[in-house]
Amino acid sequence: MHIEINRSGGGQTLPLQISGTIAERITSGLLQPGARLPSVRGLALSLKVSQVTVSKAYADLEARGHILCSQGRGCYVAQREQNVRGRGAGWQDSYDDYLPRAQLWRNFDVSEVEYPFHLAAIHSSLLPLAPIGATMASLVREQPELMASYGNFQGDAELREVMRQHLQSRGIPLGSGDLMITSGSQQGIDLVARTFVGPGDTVYLEAPSYTGAIDVFAGRGAEMVFVPMDGDGMRVDKLTAMCDRKPPKLIYTNPTYQNPSGATMSLTRRQRLLELARSYRCLIVEDDPFSDLYFRQPPPPSIKSMDTEGHVVYMKSFSKVLAPGSRIACVAAGGNILSRLIAAKSASDLGSPLLTQRAVLPFIARKYDDYAANLRNALRLRQESAAKLLKRYAPPGVSWQLPGGGLNLWLELPPAAEIGRLHVLAKQEGISFLPGNVCYAGDKPSRHIRLCYSQLTSEGMERGLRQFLLLLERYLQPPD
Length: 480
Ligand SMILES: Cc1ncc(COP(=O)(O)O)c(C=O)c1O
What we know:
It is a single chain. It contains 14 helices and 15 strands. It starts with 13 loop residues before the first helix and ends with a helix. Helix content is about 40%, strand content about 15%. By secondary structure, it is α/β, with parallel strands linked by helices. Helix 4 (about 130-140) crosses helix 11 and helix 12 runs parallel beside helix 14. The structure holds pyridoxal-5'-phosphate. Pyridoxal-5'-phosphate (PLP) binds near residues 186, 212 and 289.
């Protein structure tokens, strides 16, 4: 079993690093109930650690209910649900991979639940699918040759010009050569990680952070260090002290209506973060899918808008707000940081599909700002009705803050709540949420859950949220 170990410590003991990685493989479904773990001796030999270290890791996993160990028989993944595995496929369990969390997607299968609150998305009735679809249909009819061409690795020149104007209107002045089109910002994060992050490099992230980014950095073998947050976003004062001990290779932040916490970084912290990146000569990845989705006043200016020396790789996803299936985002960066990212993009997929790039182009160029104003209004109404339901039905001990925009609520549950169990019960009622522990590396326990209020119709959201809060009340009730 391959487990990336950081022997310099990284803030975690070796047993906890080992148990954390195995726990992730179990919760993500990669290691199935009943699967046998390697023997203590075998794992100790393959990881070049002592048997005591592995025994401690297994004891930790057993204490957390992930595995069962018995004298003579060894350790097995605990049964949670009946699992049927194809015969003869057992060898796959020990076939090494380098994507420790990549099976988490199994937890998020939308088809299984009626109320998929776990998904940070916008309901199709709010998206401009008709105009984008009409452009797509006419492109297929009138310019089928678009499908016969690879296009430019950096992205379609016309779309890049539209993106340039868009970013300029948001206070980010660039040339159209200073940005590239990617398949969603998820690909942007992946390209940055593949290009600039290697095993053992220190990557700082907010605690909690976007799961998709954690997956990418974990896959690169980075040492991820999580920086505490408060209502003003990442605690840059704490980050500064942490960087003194461990200089950053890269800082990943989602500063506006952060996924999952909803917090927005203050202007002062944005300025300080940029100063920090300057003094450490490192990159900041500013992931910004939500800044157009403000409900009261616009958020502070982006960090990129203040960046004069090319420290910020800025990602603006249009997939989230327009059409996730179009997979369109733009990545803005300076100098040879961008040219190296374009090289990575060419190695990754030889460029994004021309058809989807051209399909969103007229909408972004001419209709986006009016659309975004209406979307903000619709999302604000959803958040208001979610807030009313929470006020009325949330049981005592459950707390939350209302973010100034975005798609999510981050609820803190009382210490008695066992979130894994609640997740199973909610699923039985057709409801899903994102358990907070996946927003940290290493299966750190969390008392939070993320609920998205925008991926259902407003009636569906109200029905589902009420049902969930009633379930939560029953679940938290002390037994008689
Ligand atoms: C903070 C953040 N970044 C990136 C993404 C990826 O979005 P996409 O690849 O669709 O642009 C998401 C999706 O949920 C997100 O929440």
